[in-house]
Write a structure and sequence with these properties.
Elements: H1 2-34, E1 41-42, E2 49-53, E3 58-65, E4 72-76, E5 81-85, E6 88-89, E7 96-99, E8 106-111, E9 120-126, E10 132-141, E11 144-147, E12 152-156, E13 161-168, E14 177-181, E15 184-185, E16 194-199, E17 204-209, E18 218-224, E19 230-237, E20 254-258, E21 273-277, E22 282-286, E23 293-296
Organism: Anopheles merus
Pfam families: Ig_3, V-set
Keywords: Membrane, Transmembrane, Transmembrane helix
Length: 308
């Protein structure tokens, strides 16, 4: 009987000790999680404003520390639409997707093929009580290429064609910039004297065709990756006044062509000059022998205008 009482006493003693230890541990754990530094918080080192081009995926990176068992959601601010919860997509628009690697603190919202209408504010939200969120601004722009100079160039035969293309409103350097003549990529092996210099950091590309010939005339297009293309029409013309011709992207206001073969409505050959005024887009045909002058509005058919 005494032995049984002793065992019961010993049992209650250890029970009290173990309960006390567990209560201490539980209290410490609870106290730890109640401390501010142990609560989920955002890493503010991530980029909060992102610019993306139409057609290229946009990525918004949200980094949450001490997440624990809380969930991360992405919300579209303008209509408070829930896009993702955890790694699940909660919208019919499957262009939106949450990317997360197990064990990491980063939760990324990816928007495939973004459009200008997708521009706006998006919130990365954590399911604490009360909820905490971090706002991100997305700007979706249309990147366009631009060929410097006029949209139509007249080049003296034997001179160089020099075209410079710039990718505008492109948040990142283009992966490539292709040049086309008509619908075909400019062929380096087709003839000598063709060179392309592309500088990705400045988003520019230069096409040089040395010793241009009339066969080099045509529509030249600059096409950077993820940018709308730009074109220029080049005319390579035989003439006798190279100093007055427009070379490549020169800002010269006129091009003079010595031309003795044209005739206009029975008035005989044009034995003086055909002047192209780049600023006004007009052609002036001068006949020295008659003193007559025609102002032609269309540069595509300089001899088809109405006499004045």
């Amino acid at each position: 009987m005494e032995t049984r009482i002793g065992l019961l006493g010993l049992f209650f003693y250890y029970f009290v000790v173990i309960s006390t230890v567990l209560n201490i541990i539980s209290g410490e754990v609870q106290s730890y999680w109640e401390q501010p530094f142990a609560q989920p918080y955002f890493d503010n080192s991530t980029k909060r404003e992102v610019t993306a081009t139409v057609g290229q995926s946009a990525l918004l990176h949200c980094r949450v520390r001490n997440l624990g068992d809380r969930a991360v959601s992405w919300i579209r601010k303008r209509d408070l639409h829930i896009l993702t919860v955890g790694i699940l997509t909660y919208t019919n628009d499957q262009r939106f997707q949450s990317l997360h690697t197990e064990g990491s603190d980063e939760w990324t919202l990816r928007i495939t093929s973004p459009q200008p209408r997708d521009s706006g504010t998006y919130e990365c939200q954590v399911s604490t009580e009360p909820k905490i969120s971090q706002a991100f601004r997305l700007n979706v722009v249309v990147s366009k290429a631009k060929i410097l100079g006029n949209s139509e160039l007249f080049i003296k035969s034997g001179s160089d064609i020099n075209l410079t293309c710039v990718a505008l409103q492109s948040p990142a350097p283009p992966s490539f910039i292709y040049w086309y003549k008509g619908g075909r990529v400019v062929n380096y092996s087709q003839r000598g004297g063709i060179s392309v210099l592309t500088e990705r950091q400045t988003k520019t590309s230069k096409l040089v065709i040395a010793r241009a010939m009339p066969s080099d005339s045509g529509n030249y297009t600059c096409s950077p990756s993820s940018s709308d293309s730009a074109s220029v029409v080049v005319h390579v013309i035989n003439g006798e006044q190279p100093a007055a011709m427009q070379h490549g992207n020169s800002s010269a206001n006129s091009v003079l062509i010595n031309n003795r073969s044209f005739s206009h409505r029975g008035h005989g050959p044009l034995d003086r000059w055909l002047a192209y005024l780049g600023g006004s887009k007009n052609l002036i045909l001068s006949l020295a022998s008659t003193g007559l002058c025609w102002l032609v509005k269309s540069i595509s058919s300089p001899l088809g205008g109405t006499g004045r």
